[in-house]
Amino acid sequence: MNFLDELEWRGLLHQTTGGDELRTHLEQKGCVAYCGFDPTKESLTIGNYMPIKLLRHWQLAGHTPIVLMGGGTGLIGDPSGKDAERTLQSKEIVEKNIQGQLRAFSKVLDFEGEHAAIIVNNGDWLCELGFIDVLRDVGKHFSVNVMIQKDSVKDRLNNREQGISYTEFSYMILQAYDFLHLRQSHDCTVQIAGSDQYGNIVAGIDLIRRDMSGADENEFRGAGITSPLVTASDGSKIGKTEDGAIWLTDDLTSAYAFHQYWLNVPDEDAGKFLRWFTFLNQEDIEGIEKEHADAPHLRLAQKRLADEMTQIFHGEENVRRCNDAAQALFGGDVTALDEAMLRDVFAEVPAGEFSKSLIGTDEAMLVDLLPQTSLCKSKREAREFLQNGSVAVNGKKVNGDEALERVLSKDDLLHGTTILLRRGKKSWFATRWT
């Protein structure tokens, strides 16, 4: 499918420049496009995944994608969408963030073959430019009158007390120069970005046209393609939770937490998320939606979404492990979970530290231990919960009069360190024994 048509049916096409000329240009294979990534953090979030996915669709359409790491622009900071001046980062921090972010791209893009993806760092050319050279050769093509009308600048000038520094004001010039440099060095004719970057893209196209003013009139100069700001049905940012961001690397977000995020997507978002985030084709997605509509309680759309996304960033084996863990949690039998998954599954539940020397003694009696957890408030409540069979140890219910005499033993320890207590169906408490 044509790249633009692919984005359109998925709801990922917002704006383009070039019109029919762009479509004609894309009929040939091997066109080159780039997308820039701002190294403000040491990893990327689900929100940052969208431009990577657009580059993959570009690649699947028979074209070459360029990942542009902002080693130069990251030292300045993009003012787009910011209420105040960014804190400037050191070169060392920017480089560390770049290395951290690079881990995500190979999960999505193909770096081998005919249309292999390319990674470049704009610090390699921006940091070599002389100030006077930039003013003479680049700055002369920019009108301040036009620049202050850009939303990222105008909002800061008119609505914020702190205004905008010349440093951030110059960001547009640097980003435009990136497009010109890649046009000259890699024959890159298209920039892909989110809709908030449209003004910067147009500035780059204009700079290319001025630089190529003496070239063949029929030669394609450059174009921009943007995707819309994708949000959940309630208007919230995708990838943000009460506990923080959902990251694309497992050192910051475990495979289980990643899988759970997609499993908990509301019904009204599931279908469009399948279009936006997965590479499933239109026929498959419509089939999943139909099955989901027939039996919404089974949450088939969410399960497929969670599996597809987890497979991309964590692999098939972790998809299996996450599903096994979810089943174990639902069924209450957590004893089969391996140590890493046990830790990830119960990372967010209330927990407490206890001395292993108490195991097997009267101080490890459930009736005395429960009031030290979040599962009950008093010994009286503990007796009541134990007698009515609402307490479980590692998923197995403790029943009858014997429950009041139940003492935790070494046999209860999972992987030698953890005993999981549960009251009812959902209230868990992890006891850690050291």
Describe this structure in words.
This protein has 19 helices and 13 strands. The chain has three domains: 3-227, 3-Layer(aba) Sandwich (Rossmann fold); 241-333, Tyrosyl-Transfer RNA Synthetase (Orthogonal Bundle); 351-433, Structural Genomics Hypothetical 15.5 Kd Protein In mrcA-pckA Intergenic Region, Chain A (Roll), CATH 3.10.290.10. A hairpin with a 2-residue loop joins β10 and β11. The strands form three sheets. A six-stranded mixed β-sheet has the order 1-6-5-2-3-4, with helices on both faces. 43% of the residues lie in helices and 12% in strands. With 434 residues, it is α/β, with parallel strands linked by helices. α10 (171-186) crosses α11 (198-211) and α12 (255-263) crosses α16 (316-331).
Number of domains: 3
Q: What Rg, in angstroms, do the CA atoms define?
A: 27 Å
Residue runs with pLDDT of under 50 for 5 or more positions = none
Report mean pLDDT, rounded to a whole number: 91
Q: Can you tell me the CATH class of the largest domain? A: Alpha Beta
C-alpha end-to-end distance: 58 Å
